[in-house]
């Protein structure tokens, strides 16, 4: 449970937004789906019960009809392309990466196009032309080739810097402690990051704040945080939980 001392800074910041007549835009991305699982059921039911749209980054090479059938009637779900096989080609002392490095560009782009077509075919009504690079990492040279494959948007991690040839809808707050406990991070830390992102947006930056989950590895702490965070924000008058599709559309119509 997130106790009130942890909720308090969040409410204090959101009240500031409310007093200023502003809406904070949040969105939820959850990575690595390939098939229906108990963890996926939990994610789907919790997001649905709070009316929160979720973008599932699905790994094309290892997914198929079973997940597509399960998601067919879930209108609050969008499906994005999570690389091709989530395979790490980096060396043992490098950061993990599928999209870039020493492999020929043509090979990588060919896989991405295959993944794009596969998911587009499996998800006629849920498909987002969005690339979510595995480990949030992609070589810059590849990014400008993405529109020619059909991609309209890219989602990695962190605040947007510089120009891009396609819409960017990033995640900013990662629920998991990958290098430490490998479980959910402490609620106070997560709330602190959300508040810092809100403060950054309040001062002018027009970028939605992305919460990043990985349902397959959520422990009790991660699930508890999500439920409490949904509870704290979904009814708040200064918060809009947006779908990635709406956020992409918003960027495209702005340019
Ligand atoms: Zn992933």
Can you walk through the features of this model?
- It contains nine helices and nine strands.
- By secondary structure, the protein is an alpha/beta fold.
- The chain has one domain (24-254): Glycoside hydrolase/deacetylase (TIM Barrel), CATH 3.20.20.
- α1 runs parallel beside α7 (187-202).
- The protein starts with a helix and ends with a helix.
- The model has no long low-confidence stretch (mean pLDDT 95).
- Bound molecules: zinc ion.
- Zinc ion binds at residues 31-32, 82, 86, 134.
| Strand fraction | 15-25%
Count of discrete domains: 1
Quick check: average pLDDT? Answer: 95
Can you tell me the overall shape? globular
Mind telling me the CATH superfamily name?
Glycoside hydrolase/deacetylase
**What's the N-to-C terminus distance?**
42 Å
Q: Hetero groups bound?
A: zinc ion
Radius of gyration: 18 Å
Q: How many beta-strand elements? A: 9
| SSE string, helices as H and strands as E | HEHEHEHEHHEEEHEHEH
Give the structural class.
alpha/beta
CATH topology: TIM Barrel
Task: Give the fraction of residues assigned to helices.
Answer: 40-55%
> Spans with pLDDT under 50 lasting ≥5 residues?
none
CATH class: Alpha Beta
């Amino acid at each position: 449970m997130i106790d009130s001392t942890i909720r308090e800074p969040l409410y204090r910041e959101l009240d500031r937004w409310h007093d200023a007549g502003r809406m904070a835009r949040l969105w939820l991305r959850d990575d690595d789906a390939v098939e229906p699982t108990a963890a996926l059921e939990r994610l789907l039911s919790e997001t649905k019960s709070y009316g929160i749209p979720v973008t599932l980054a699905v790994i094309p090479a290892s997914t198929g009809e079973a997940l597509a059938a399960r998601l067919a009637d879930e209108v609050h779900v969008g499906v994005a392309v999570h690389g091709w096989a989530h395979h790490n080609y980096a060396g043992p002392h490098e950061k993990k990466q599928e999209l870039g490095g020493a492999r020929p560009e043509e090979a990588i782009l060919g896989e991405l196009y295959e993944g794009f077509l596969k998911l587009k075919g499996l998800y006629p009504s849920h498909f987002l032309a969005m690339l979510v690079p595995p480990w949030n990492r992609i070589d810059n040279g590849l990014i400008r080739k993405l529109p020619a494959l059909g991609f309209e948007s890219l989602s990695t991690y962190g605040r947007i810097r510089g120009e891009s040839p396609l819409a960017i809808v990033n995640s900013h707050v990662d629920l998991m402690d990958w290098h430490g406990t490998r479980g959910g991070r402490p609620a106070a830390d997560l709330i602190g990051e959300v508040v810092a992102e809100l403060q950054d947006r309040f001062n002018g930056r027009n970028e939605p704040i992305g919460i990043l989950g990985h349902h397959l590895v959520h422990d009790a702490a991660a699930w508890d945080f999500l439920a409490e965070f949904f509870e704290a924000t979904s009814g708040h008058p200064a918060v809009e939980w947006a779908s990635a599709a709406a956020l992409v559309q918003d960027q495209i119509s702005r340019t």
